[in-house]
Amino acid sequence: MEKETLLLLQNAALKQIEEADNSEALNNVRNTFLSKKSELSSLMSQLGTLSSEQRKEYGQVINGVRVTITNAIEQKMALLKAKELEAKLARETIDITLPGKEGSVGARNPFYVIEEEMIEIFLGMGFEIADGPEVESDHYNFELMNIPKDHPSRDMQDTFYIDDNNLLRTHTSPVQARVMQAKKEGPIRVICPGKTYRRDDDDATHSHQFAQIEGLVVDKDINIGHLKATLELFVKKMFGEKREIRLRSSYFPFTEPSVEVDITCANCGGKGCSMCKGTGYIEILGAGMVHPNVLKMSGYDPEVYSGFAFGVGIERVAILRYGIDDIRKFYQNDVRFIRQFKKAS
Ligand code: DAH
Q: pLDDT value at position 341?
């Protein structure tokens, strides 16, 4: 064993450490000079064959060489790691001033925008939401609404029959009966939003499927003033403070008296134009005082209770609010139509 060899080994190692310009290369140098298979390790294992004096002497030298190489590697490694981190950070710099990628967000169908707005207005007045089935019985859809089998008004509401006794409801009015029967007594103040169906030939103003919001208020001493005030507030919130309403005498089998409610035309403000056909008004909904028969049939005594009801088409309100020219557009899912209401949603 020559000290010379050991110094040569040390110098060779220091040179390679110096030359290593990345951490991987430096790890290789470490393997070459310090691993179990390295020359230094094999020299170390030969120490046992030497006399104790020589062992001490060479042991110190070998150890010195090992420490020198180890330290040199550690120092160089720290340097290389710092450089590599710096390079990595520089490579991964994010320019936070760049505009982000905009995801594409859809628009809500104006039907739902308006439905929600209408519901909010009535909830604000203290109405609760009631629900009823879309597949309804003849009994609820017609009979309990004071429309017996031979009643001529059934013709206007010709619909889709499931069988002789069941049909797709033609209006949300049957929920009135369901709510009264469930409640049995005491005041009622509900709205029922939902789908309705009629066997119609679809065109710009007719759709075989549409939606209504039914309203029902039953209590002691309810009069037509309550009806008018409620609908006036609804119209003003929905269409603006300037809108006036007009009650026009009409006929529904389930109300007495019955009215058709008109609002002043948005286009001309009531003067008369082509949109309102010169009348200054546009019809928006049907309403009336709940017919005594309807109260009685669902368990409310008309001598004690009175009430008012109304039924308003959701598409109709949306059409008037946005000036939509064809009811079918609500159902065609043409994104060019729907996108126009992006802000509204
Ligand atoms: N059910 C009627 C329809 O479908 C609308 C209606 C009119 C509902 C008057 C009412 C009402 O509650 O009082 O055309």
A: 87
Q: How far apart, in whole angstroms, are the C-alpha atoms of residue 184 and residue 187?
A: 10
CA of 70 to the centre of ligand 1 (A): 93
Q: What is the dihedral of CA 218, 222, 227, 233, to 10 degrees?
A: -90
% of residues, the chain, pLDDT over 90: 73
139 and 67, same structural domain?
A: no
Residue 286 CA to ligand 1 center (angstroms) comes to 5
pLDDT at 1: 63
208 with 139, same domain: the answer is yes
Q: Is the CB of 210 under 6 A from ligand 1?
A: no
Residue 96 falls inside a structural domain: no
For every residue of 30-74, DSSP letters joined together read HHHHHSTTSHHHHHHHHGGGS-HHHHHHHHHHHHHHHHHHHHHHH
Number of independent structural domains in the chain: 2
pTM to 2 decimal places = 0.72
Output the domain CATH number for residue 129.
3.30.930.10
- Domain-embedded: residue 76: yes
Predicted local confidence at residue 344, as pLDDT: 46
Report if residue 98 sits inside a domain: no
Read off φ and ψ for residue 61, nearest 5 degrees.
Answer: -65, -45
**Averaged over 21-32, what is the pLDDT?**
93
**Residue span of the structural domain in which 250 resides:** 112-339
Q: In this model, does residue 38 exceed pLDDT 70?
A: yes
Query: Of the ranges 35-44, 128-137, 211-220, 230-239, which one carries the lowest mean pLDDT score?
Result: 35-44
Tell me, using a 6 A CB cutoff, whether residue 255 lines ligand 1.
yes
99 domain-assigned: no
Residues 202, 304 within the same domain: yes
Residue 62 makes CB contacts below 8 A (sequence gap 6+) with: 6, 40, 43, 44, 47
Are 269 and 151 within one domain? Answer: yes
| Ligand 1 in reach of 252 Cβ (< 6 A) | yes
**Distances, alpha carbon 84 to alpha carbons 21, 133, 138, 218, 227, in Å:** 10, 69, 81, 79, 79
- Sign of the C-alpha dihedral computed for residues 170, 175, 176 and 177 taken in this order: positive
Q: What is the pLDDT of residues 279-310, one digit of tens each?
A: 999 999 999 999 999 999 999 999 999 999 99
